[in-house]
Specification:
The protein has 218 residues and is mainly beta. It has helices at 35-38, 89-94, and strands at residues 3-4, 10-11, 77-87, 113-116, 121-125, 140-141, 155-162, 165-170, 177-179, 182-183, 190-191, 198-200, 204-214. A hairpin with a 5-residue loop joins strand 1 and strand 2.
């Protein structure tokens, strides 16, 4: 079935002329659907055919429609991780009997520190300065004031990434590494759960946190 527009063209579309895009009229010459005057139908940029449905290509000439009509690509979320370092009064009090004559003073001021984890293996230790030809500072360095922890060994433990999981391994430290109250066997990796707390030294508590960001992992 075909229809005739006010300009005399034959059209298969009862609302809009496929030849001149003129709105079709009723018997008294008024547009059948006045809204077409404000919002004309989209047309193919190559052949002028009226676009319809959710097609990505023009059914008449095969031209791909403009890219802005495609649904946006969702961002790729990449898991980034950080550790938050605090002092733990409960751990300090619980281990008081094992400290002997060292008797460190619990820090009166110790703001939380955050360290972003980079790479697949991140060392935890305590190094005040790097000597010529010596080893670099550990990424998680517990020698920093005002909460330097003398109970942390120079090379104490290592965090290792396995996909989106992390393990912690004690590296034969003097005072040991504890995860949620359990002392780790030296050299044996422990898979970390989201709510685990790593305690080392005399009063240090370390927690792992995941942060999803857009882009590629550094």
């Amino acid at each position: 079935m075909t229809f005739r527009c006010p300009n005399g063209h034959a059209s298969a579309d009862p609302d809009l002329c496929t030849a001149c895009a003129m709105p079709m009229s009723d018997s008294v010459g008024l547009p059948r659907n006045p809204t077409f005057l404000m919002a004309p139908k989209a047309r193919c940029s190559s052949c002028g055919a009226v676009r319809g449905g959710d097609h990505k290509y023009c059914p008449e000439c095969g031209t791909r429609y403009a890219a802005e009509t495609d649904p946006p690509t969702p961002p790729v979320l990449v898991a980034d991780f950080e550790v938050r370092i605090n002092v733990d009064r409960g751990y300090y009090d619980d281990t008081a009997a094992t400290r002997g004559d060292e008797r460190p003073v619990f820090p009166s001021y110790a703001p939380e520190r955050t360290v972003r984890l980079r790479g697949e293996a991140v060392e935890i230790g305590r190094v005040r300065r790097v000597r010529p030809g010596g080893k670099a500072l550990p990424p998680v360095n517990l020698a920093e004031k005002p909460a330097a922890d003398l109970g942390v060994s120079h090379v104490h433990a290592v965090l290792q990434r396995e996909g989106d999981d992390w393990t912690v391994t004690d590296l034969d430290s003097k005072n040991g590494t504890y995860v949620s109250g359990v002392r780790l066997e030296s050299g044996a990796p422990r898979l970390l759960a989201p709510d685990d707390v790593i305690n080392i030294g005399f009063f240090t508590a370390i927690t792992l946190h995941r942060k999803d960001t857009e882009g590629s992992r550094p």
